[in-house]
């Protein structure tokens, strides 16, 4: 089962770490640490192998992947020796990371994206291509009546107005090209009624959104712990310092507020109430790719006694995200092969802001995931994309 | 269903916090924060109410409960206003906290303990009495052939030798008196083959051991999180500073090593390997009842990238333990009423070092607990203890 | 040397903690912990005793001091037993905390304030009165030509416009009444050319501003440490969570930005450069009077090696501020008695944003303070205020 | 002024980082970050330049310096690019790092060490050689009457008994060879009456001991801060996790207790009392060269209010130590050139356990250091060593 992985933002830190890692895994140079799909509890799923993955993507930057990979090695995100070892393979991928297409209308731009995807799939003779958005976070768009139905959307797209934010335009084009779509960012992506309609019509699955790599991951185990012990969380305040790729962008108040809201949602959902406190994201350029998140939780116990938990998470976002990108590519492809369409709510485990009415505690999400994986057994007649 | 709760160490911090809390709950003066049995997910169980609980116990100290409760209020463990409000009720309990019985042989001492338990049960016309050990932690005893069978044990107990450590002597007497036994400490308790034999013969349930109130509770959710994300925990080091009740005792190297080992066991069980690092317990008298635990976890992610998690837990052990003591009394009583005997492995949720071959991750323990609670429905003919 | 201490914001947390503490010290019920003036290194100064202090003030609130003190006891800021012990004395002070005077023009309002101060001084037969601003933080006012000279200011004050922010109006009135003035907040206070002119004319000293009680105190020793070790501080980010008195006010972006700037100034001054990063202040009501500040410092060492320091400060701002208020009252009074006028730059030790061209490292400020204290010996003919 | 720097433990992490750094500084490839002697406040001192330093040493290991340097680069202690750039120079130093001499008596071994030092000085035509101990920490030796006078010591050294611990044997030989001696470790070094006598007779200066690189450095600014604010430190507990070079050795209880005591001394000296709590050092191999130290300080403020400070220091000991080693070599050489002999108490700034009756607060030590540096002006007739 050969699988194309098309990365929107294909020259960014997450994308390049994913590509370097997949090449290293294929070459047997690294262990699949961080890859959830390689755990015994998911071994029943019939997934494409690391060796079956072929990478492509879109990116406005023209910096060669090898150069970007070397910068990531200097920053401590990936080992320099691995980058050197996969240099040739990386150069080969370079040609498949294309510049952003642009035309006079969004309908026409979507057509160019579809053409790139189809050409990629055909040239590499791929069984399917999964499109994954790992580009910078966008501001939340205003509501628009064109979002409500596919017909209205497609009409609007023929005009001069940029009706869709980029993440949603890519989702539209992916679905049009017969490709499942995954949103790893907090951007809009496929989360519009018009696009849900398109996915259903195309019988394609989609997943998202906002990869859960650090502070929210911790919340998704700590908040249930407080709830199950009947301890009353009074305040939960978080402070994130980051300097890497998406940091400057997230410091923009518009993007920041979307992200912060998504980061607190797990509390409401697992505690049954929203404690006081917010999440702050600060861009401090010199901090680099290793994010530091500090959280203070205050809670009341028996007879009202006040207690506190503080944690500091010092993690490398790109290194945490990259194996999940590979997991999502493999799982979404297998779901497609198994005939699944619509939102893949069983993948909530991977996301801060998961699709559907799903549990937000990690343990329940884990159970959903492992049960889902067990259903991903081979079909006799896998349905090719449109 | 009137329930006697007999506390070994009945004038200690945990016991007095439990008693004050139960009296306050009965009087409607406090919410059941921290009481797991009051959560909706356990509401199906047929448990004795807070108003059905009657407290008694053994303790070498003669300090009145009201005095001890006022000291706990000064230390910030319980509100002074609550202590004042339950003053009369507390005084009434005082008479049921008896001095430690002592006779020439352990057999004779056990007889005195049994007599105290029976007298307590009959005088208060209780349906049953659950004995809970909340006394100071003991050193681990050496292996002894007398532990291997009830017959050998009872023979040895007729001699002058103190064959059983106190916690096990209480477990023996409790079972002899027809009382279920719970060990909330890391001491030996009922965990000897001879006592398992006695519990089986008496058709009595028992539970333990070592109440999971802080650092280990966190480990039981964080370690599964790392495992489910396929992140490789390399080191896990913990440092506990505490000044309250049991602190000086735990600083004793013998008790300390038992406790520390029990605190790291969850890592081996949930991670499938034992990371480097140990748990240190330090007694710093001035720290008082609010323990501070600091943990550093270092782990490797994708392509070997090193990352870190640090947390500081600032908790009041007595306040965390007390509602669990009430939970265990209620659940163990209900299990007895429902005809259960032997180790209550489904109560692993409450313990650092649970009985039986059970999961150590909190989420799995929670599932066991809620499923267990659902079975605790009333029996038509509840079997009284021997 | 009887000394009136007139507190602007006399029913606030800092004021009431100061008053309760002074009364307790006078009664011999507490040790002078936190009072810098009681250290051996300052013992040469001829200062008024705690028993010589008489409190008065202005406050818009009418809540009795005893009620406020009990609330502070409930919040853990002062011991309930002390509040009970000084109850009568506290009630006696109550009458001297007056409502805010208000008239049609600021000139007239100033006249009312002066009258209150003079009446207080005369009724209690005080040698002098020091006015200390412990009211809520104000936004920074825009520049105004009226601030440039006393003549222009006094002309403007006769109009309807509120030309001065409240803190500066109090400073004006204090100086007019012959009282030294101390600003313990980041507000404007005496820091206007027109008021400096008035102080000089009245031969009165003044001090400020913004009491250094926590995070900035730490910066004032840690930043010099990095500088003296030639370590290159790259980023310094701070996050303050507070729920008490002034918290909601500081969360206001205008006040917040003034405060945050003042909190980073010590870095520029002691490091010789401004590292990346900012200070955030968040109001989380439930956090209460115990502020938690978390700081992350990243720095480069030999050959560029990156290292980190994190700290968490969990302090009670009112308890930290109150003894410094007493210190400042005593030192400013003694300076006045010794004939000093103009800005008391030697008191930089107490302030985040000290007056004058002074060192910002705590060690240098300490040296200035102790040398200053040594000059505060009795004068034969202490000059009474105008 | 050409200066030999003879490193006892010349192939260890601290030594190799020092050598690589000095070579890089000489070549203009790095800035002198971390070098205190390069600060403007010390610019008056007449010190040898980095280009004047010539390295030699003793070490039991035979691992080439280049190999060790590459291992340090892999561990993130020094940049790989710098190691590559100084490869040739490093190889040249290799020949001057000699194996440990050993003879039948300590007198004879000392003779071999002296011979190595003299040969090194003459071959490189050095003005002087400073011997610096950066070898592993030794256990504290028992008292010995031979330590009391030079005569008794030298008699004892002719016997078969190993009367001196290695650090003291090196100090003896250094002084015999006319070389000033610096102890950067907590070992005995020159701190014996017999060796003080020898230093005096040889008119040689010596300095020590135990380089202050992390946790104690912080204590030396934080403890004075608490003292100057009259805050009462109640407990100070520290926990050090380290995996690098000296870690396994320090985990040895004997060495550990010496180190821990030295680390708490600053508290007694600056606070005037010893708070409760201890310092623990744990060896966790996987932690590597970046040590993590966590400290909890609890303190009482005004009216007894309890507050807390926690910090985590994540530092690279070798990178923190190396520039100080270069500083000490330069300063000790200049002191010798200026005719100083005996203990250099003015260098307390650099040490955890400084020589003489000196202040332990960093600010006072800094003042001593800068005043000392100002005296290190050239002499017309620099006295050569014996």
TrEMBL record, chains A, B, C, D:
Q: Which PANTHER family match?
A: MYO-INOSITOL-1 PHOSPHATE SYNTHASE (PTHR11510)
* Any Pfam family the entry gives: NAD_binding_5
Q: Which family does it belong to?
A: Belongs to the myo-inositol 1-phosphate synthase family.
Q: Which domain of life is it from?
A: Bacteria
Instruction: Write the protein's name.
Output: Inositol-3-phosphate synthase
Residues passing through the membrane, by range: none
Originating organism: Actinoplanes sichuanensis
Give start and end of each Myo-inositol-1-phosphate synthase GAPDH-like domain.
214-318
InterPro entries on file: Myo-inos-1-P_Synthase, Myo-inos-1-P_Synthase_GAPDH, NAD(P)-bd_dom_sf
